[in-house]
Design a protein that fits this description.
The complex is a heterodimer of chains A (437) and B (195).
Chain A: H1 6-20, H2 23-30, E1 118-123, E2 129-132, H3 133-138, E3 142-149, H4 165-168, H5 174-178, E4 181-190, H6 191-198, E5 206-211, E6 218-222, H7 223-226, E7 231-236, E8 239-240, E9 250-252, E10 265-271, H8 278-283, E11 286-287, E12 293-294, E13 303-308, E14 319-328, E15 334-340, E16 348-349, E17 351-352, E18 362-370, E19 375-383, H9 392-399, H10 405-410, E20 423-426, E21 432-435
Parallel strand pairs in A: 1-10
Antiparallel strand pairs in A: 1-2, 3-4, 4-7, 5-6, 5-10, 7-8, 7-9, 11-12, 13-14, 14-18, 15-16, 15-19, 17-18, 19-20, 20-21
Chain B: H1 2-25, H2 38-44, E1 59-60, H3 62-72, H4 74-77, H5 113-123, H6 134-147, E2 157-158, E3 173-174
Antiparallel strand pairs in B: 1-2
Helix pairs in contact in B: 3-6, 5-6
The chains are: A alpha+beta (437), B mainly alpha (195).
Chain lengths: 437, 195
């Protein structure tokens, strides 16, 4: 036992011991044999588990290019809280699992043995239940394509520090500004099925979900959503969920801010009120200028961004270029994406790649002949509820403030859920720059 | 005879009713999932609600908390709870929320004392998470609340007193009532923004 981490280790060990008592019962119930204790050896052979070409070098980056997220010795200020997806290199709508963004509030991914892991469902239910991974895999499953996006993605908040600085800097790239969203095919069991098995009691209105990492993240979610489209996912893009994404189990709460999607999920309690966990009640509310804070903002609004061309890229010269990007909305399917190649004066409908999935990245494309003149490219999307992605000024209007780059410098505090239209300026030399307007 | 018939009738009615209820609630998948033991649930059931009904037995005061703080917390949170590069400030910021440099601390921002207890219990001290005993968590919570001038140094914090603490910024959130949180439409949220 590692003497550096006696507390949680002891806790996990006790939990495992308790869970271990039941292994025999589970075995006889399922009638299936478990995998051997250790795999035969880690195959380095790329014929056994493939790698991409050595010429492909697209990488996640940390905030301002720093990593060290898992190093508790590093001062908090220099630890990394957002590992961003290289959206500029993406094609199609699926984010490779190796490039999915990571936010885990500075905690290491726990190294969980799936045979030791249990999902406990209890609280206001008729029958508390404990599931092994194997049992969950035996239940009817579904696969759904959904984005997961951090509530702080795309924002200019923290503009005088990281990470909002990129949104207002001419050098901001799409990865730095918008890289906290990713989209995967998730496979698992609908939480509604598990809750039905447990039998939700009258008076229940919320669930709380809890992870197994050192800090044991806890999140309250209204029961109505839990019974709607929430998944307990064990699969991601055709294989088990990656450790950094919550192996062996995670919650997938489609369309809602990332913090709801509890990774390393080990417990769901059905309750009658939100539990006001530390992050939901003190970190994820966003402050208004009058000093009051909005909490539990849940749904991510309609957002789109052009990935090519985007900040930091360079067009080879005038002529044909296809403009392409992604659109998504927590409100459902993307219905329409419009692109402006003249700074918002005129808009053209972009082609949308089908099939379009609800609460999922949606690829759009527009053919464009660049005449070599300086111009500004923008995209805006409309979702199935006819909600249209707002301009920066319109987001400001919702909040009753004038949202300029200076506003964010003066008030670096969190204005999250920032889904305003992104503008990229194409200069005459073909270079592309971020514009905050 | 009459009474027996009557009893049987009532029993039949009760059974019918019961089976109608259980039919809707019967698990659909046999032998998937196991009934956890009471103690197993208890060992995992650590989250504390705002009414504090899950708080374990135990007690502590700020005086006791100061001693534990000096051993287990000061390295990251500082002598005067002012914070350091290793840990956030645990005091300060009163009256700053509406300014351009808001400081969100337990005293200036947090809405519930139960959140302080829950968070220290689950997540502190960092790298030794889960190592504190309930008495220690009560004492440390009392210490932090005392240093934020929310309670007196000798006030005893336990399962009864802690949930009653009125945090200074309890009314600083929208919507203020927890019952009003779940319905974004009623709250006037749109485009992913709540007013």
């Amino acid at each position: 036992m590692n003497s550096k981490k006696p507390g949680r280790r002891r806790f996990l060990k006790e939990g495992a011991a308790l869970a271990g008592l039941a292994v025999g019962a589970i075995r006889s119930a399922s009638g299936q044999t478990l995998a051997p204790e250790t795999p035969a050896g880690k195959p380095k052979d790329t014929l056994a588990y493939g790698e991409r070409s050595q010429f492909v070098n697209s990488l996640r980056i940390g905030t301002n290019g720093r990593y060290g997220m898992d190093n508790p010795e590093l001062p908090r200020a220099s630890r990394d809280y957002g590992i961003r997806t290289p959206l500029q290199d993406s094609v199609g709508i699926i984010t490779p699992s190796s490039l999915h963004f990571i936010v885990s509030h500075g905690y290491d991914s726990p190294n969980i043995d799936p045979r030791q892991h249990r999902l406990l469902i209890h609280g206001l239910v008729d029958r508390p239940l404990s599931f092994t991974l194997e049992e969950l895999e035996r239940l009817p499953s579904v696969s759904r394509i959904h984005f997961v996006e951090c509530a702080g993605n795309s924002t200019a908040s923290g503009a005088v520090f990281v990470p909002g600085a990129a949104r207002v800097a001419p050098t901001g790239t799409v990865q730095q500004v918008h890289g906290l969203t990713s989209c995967s095919e998730w496979t698992g069991v609908l939480l509604s099925l598990l809750l039905r098995e447990a039998g939700v009691k009258n008076g229940a209105t919320w669930i709380i979900a809890e992870g197994a990492e050192q800090g044991m993240h806890i999140k309250s979610i209204p029961l109505e959503k839990a019974l709607d489209d929430v998944l307990v996912a064990y699969g991601m893009n055709g294989e088990p969920v990656r450790p950094q994404q919550g192996y062996p189990l995670r919650l997938l709460v489609p369309g809602w801010e990332g913090i709801n999607n509890v990774k390393w999920l080990r417990r769901i309690k059905v309750v009658d009120q939100p539990y006001m966990g530390m992050r939901e009640s003190t970190r994820y509310p966003s402050l208004r200028v009058d000093g009051k804070a909005r909490w539990f903002q849940f749904e991510m609004g309609p957002k789109s961004v052009i990935l090519r061309p985007s900040g930091g890229q360079k067009l080879s010269g005038p002529g044909f270029h296809q403009i392409t990007g992604l659109a998504w909305s927590g409100g459902g399917m993307i219905r329409r994406v419009e692109v402006s190649t003249d700074g918002g004066r005129t808009w053209k409908d972009a082609a949308i790649q089908g099939p379009v999935h609800s609460k999922a990245h949606t690829r759009f494309r527009l053919d464009w002949n660049w005449n070599g003149e300086e111009t500004v490219l923008q995209s805006r999307c409309t979702d199935e509820r006819n909600e249209v992605q707002p301009t920066v000024a319109e987001v400001g209007k919702i909040y009753g403030v004038n949202l300029t780059a200076d506003f964010f410098k003066e008030r670096p505090d969190t204005l999250i859920h920032f889904n305003a239209i992104q503008s990229w300026r194409v200069n005459r030399d073909g270079s592309v720059q971020n514009v905050f307007a | 005879m009459y009474s027996l018939n009557h009893v049987l009738l009532v029993m039949a009615a009760v059974l019918c009713f019961a089976s109608a209820v259980t039919r809707a609630q019967t698990p659909a998948y046999s032998k998937v999932g196991r009934t956890p033991s009471e103690e197993e649930i208890r060992a995992w059931d650590i989250a504390i609600s705002t009414d504090g009904k899950e708080l374990p037995p135990g007690r502590g005061t700020a005086k006791e908390g100061a001693v534990i703080y000096a051993q287990k917390c000061v390295a990251c949170h500082g002598q005067s709870l002012e914070g350091s590069p290793l840990g956030t400030a645990l005091v300060g910021g009163k009256g700053t929320l509406a300014t351009t440099r808001p400081v969100k601390s337990i005293g200036s921002y947090w809405a519930f004392a139960t959140t302080v207890w829950d968070y220290i219990n689950r997540a502190m001290p960092r790298n030794q998470e889960g190592s504190l005993k309930p008495d220690e968590v009560y004492a440390l919570t009392a210490f932090v609340l005392f240093r934020n001038e929310i309670i007196q140094e000798s006030d005893v914090m336990d399962a009864r007193t802690l949930p009653k603490i009125q945090m200074p910024n309890r009314n600083g959130f929208v919507p203020p009532r927890l019952e009003d949180i779940p319905d974004p439409r009623k709250r006037g949220c749109r485009l992913g923004h709540c007013p």
